[in-house]
Specification:
By secondary structure, the protein is α+β, with helices and mostly antiparallel strands. The chain is built from 25 helices and 20 strands. A hairpin with a 5-residue loop joins strand 3 and strand 4. Helix 18 (414-426) runs parallel beside helix 20 and helix 22 packs parallel to helix 25. It starts with a helix and ends with a helix. This is DUF294 nucleotidyltransferase-like domain-containing protein.
Length: 615
């Protein structure tokens, strides 16, 4: 290999940890030993052999490492390594490497890798630490509870009890008694059309003085919430908590193939979030909810210790917040009486996106079916105050900006909300753009879906392909930049002379939320959760797959670092915040964090080019 061919290889590996720790002569020697291989996506996998072990360095492209069960271990891009576990352990290669995008890979033979490890302590330490982390990750992954890793197919009853829609309630009750189950699935032909539970028998049959000859169709729950067998137990838990249901039919192509109940999940391991949500549902006083909410910091600690993904932690914690909110609404109605009209309780910001962590404040509002008269307005004012006061007592402090349902400004009819969003979109003043970052991430916590749909769909109709609004929203999203200065050194936040650290929320996660929001509003995507928004944008072809994977990985890594840092702060008796001091983590983590922020910076440049071309 002549010098002209060697120089780009030398320059590339010289920019990688730990090759940049080598002496120039060692680095040049290593660069000369590297072999170049090209793997097209059509080849599907990288061929690995125990007879020819190598260290693989990704020069370009995208790859996935999966274990022998097919579970995702890691995603790799430019500058990442694979192959080192078997080089260090001597064990047989058990993982497979899938080619996601055409890529070039540099390969260092085993004897060269061993020589570099023997000659350079930092080089050896880097890969040994990486191997230890991989082993901890895989060990924790396999040891995690069924709640976060198993699929419903491993938990559901695979022989669900079904009954035809033309049958009577008496026959359904006999089936439930005979099979000792608390529900039957109602079919029309082979398709699932409803579910009849023991709760339905109590509330819709016995309480209504109806007898065994009542038609099932008259008392069943129609169009029940369903999932597929591949759904994670974690996802099912969240759905059951969000919709306050205890029976979840499992279907494929509309045909029932199984049933999962809250009891099934409670019997599985580590069901603490669902247990907590069940306890929330049974509380009859706000004091009970306040006491339960004191467990949330420990729940967060347990999830962090279990090495759950940041996305999972956010959804679990938000599900607990949702459950508290719904129960507060129910307790308020038991005190004030039934609401005079349909309404939705809206969650904005982090609760809307389902990415809550520690120290979350309130961002909520109320959507009313129509304009209330003075008496009705007073009812909703009292209800909102009970709920917001209750949330504050449970640790969700009042919004510093007063964006709460107890503020009449954010308690409006459908028509008023539509007009408010229309003014924000069509007259996007700076304050309107600030509101966009909060209000456009909205989700209904309580109330009829059709009412919320009427608002959300009208909002997306306003923003889809609205070049002026999207350009200004993009400009607003550029106000914060990732904390990288010259020579890619971290820019630290300071409070006077005190160094607070890297602001992982406002300089990282929040920017990614802004980027995903701009793309989602431009394409009319209804999803609110940022990782799900990114996945849906890929499916629609709005973002290319490589950029989306990079952005999703950066989001997960930065959010994970934020949670891990808050976990450390909690253990040390400090008040959790969003600031990470670089000295608190290893040089490798700092390197990875810089790479994640570089992805965020590139993604910001991407939306600027796409939506601000004419501005």
């Amino acid at each position: 290999m002549d010098s002209s061919e060697l120089q780009p290889i030398f320059d590339f590996v010289n920019g990688l940890v730990p090759f940049n720790q080598l002496q120039p002569e060692s680095l040049e020697w290593a660069a000369r030993q590297l072999e170049i291989a090209y793997f097209p996506a059509a080849s599907h996998i990288v061929p690995l052999s125990d007879d020819d072990r190598r260290l693989y360095i990704v020069r370009s492209g995208a790859f996935e490492v999966r274990d022998k069960e097919g579970e995702l271990v890691d995603r790799l891009g430019e500058g990442d390594y694979f192959g080192y576990p078997s080089l260090l352990s001597g064990d047989e290669i058990s993982n497979s490497v899938k080619v996601l995008e055409d890529g070039l890979v540099y390969q260092l033979p085993e004897e060269c890798f061993s020589e570099l490890c023997s000659a350079n302590r930092e080089f050896s330490r880097f890969f040994n630490r990486a191997y230890a982390r991989r082993m901890r990750h895989e060990g924790r992954f396999k040891a995690r509870s069924m709640l976060t890793t198993s699929r419903l197919s491993s938990l559901m009853s695979s022989d669900p009890i079904t009954i035809d829609i033309d049958q009577l309630v008496g026959e359904a009750a006999r089936l439930m008694s005979q099979h000792r189950v608390s529900s039957v699935l109602v079919q029309e032909g082979e398709q699932l059309v409803g579910i009849l539970t023991d709760r339905d028998l109590r509330s819709r049959v016995l309480a209504e003085d109806k007898g065994p000859f009542t038609r099932i169709a008259d008392v069943m729950t129609t169009a029940p919430l369903t999932v597929e067998p591949e759904t994670l137990v974690f996802e099912a838990t969240v759905l059951m908590g969000e919709h306050n249901v205890h029976h979840l039919p499992v279907t494929r192509n509309g045909k029932p193939v199984g049933m999962v109940t809250s009891t099934d999940i409670l019997r599985s391991q580590s069901s603490q979030p669902l247990l907590m949500m069940g306890e929330i549902d049974r509380q009859t006083h706000i004091e009970g909810l306040v006491n339960l909410s004191k467990r949330i910091p420990m729940l967060l600690q347990n999830l962090i210790s279990a090495d759950a993904r940041a996305e999972e932690i956010g959804r679990i914690l938000t599900s607990v917040t949702d459950a508290l909110t719904r129960r507060l609404i129910e307790l308020a109605q038991s005190q004030l009486g039934e609401a005079p009209m349909d309404f939705c309780w809206l969650a904005f910001g982090s609760q809307g996106r389902q990415d809550q962590v520690a120290c979350s404040d309130q961002d909520n509002g109320m959507l009313l079916a129509r304009e209330p008269d003075s008496q009705e307005a007073e009812y909703f004012s009292q209800l909102a105050k009970i709920v917001c006061d209750g949330l504050d007592a449970c640790g969700y402090i009042y919004c510093p900006g007063d964006i709460m349902a107890m503020n009449p400004k954010w308690r409006m009819s459908l028509k008023e909300w539509q007009q408010r969003f229309s003014s924000w979109v069509n007259s996007p003043e700076p304050k309107a753009l600030m509101h966009a970052s909060i209000f456009f991430d909205m989700r209904a916590i309580y109330g009829p879906e059709r009412l919320f749909d009427g608002l959300q769909l009208s909002v997306l109709e306003l923003t889809r392909d609205n070049d002026i609004f999207l350009a200004l929203l993009t400009g607003n999203a550029m106000n914060s930049r990732p904390p990288l200065g010259f020579f890619r050194q971290f820019v630290l936040e300071r409070d006077g002379s005190e160094v607070k650290g890297i602001d992982l929320k406002h300089k990282g996660s929040a920017i990614i939320n802004d980027i995903a929001r701009v793309y989602a509003l431009s394409a009319g995507v209804r999803e609110i959760n940022t990782p799900k928004r990114i996945r849906q944008l890929v499916d629609l072809g709005v973002i290319n797959r490589k950029d989306a994977l990079n952005l999703a990985d950066a989001q997960e890594f930065i959010a994970h670092m934020r949670l891990a840092n808050q976990g450390r702060q909690f253990e040390e008796g400090q008040k959790p915040d969003n600031y990470l001091k670089p000295g608190a983590v290893s040089s490798l983590v700092r390197h990875q964090l810089k790479e994640a922020f570089k992805v965020v910076d590139d993604a910001q440049s991407g939306i600027r080019l796409r939506f601000m071309r004419a501005y």
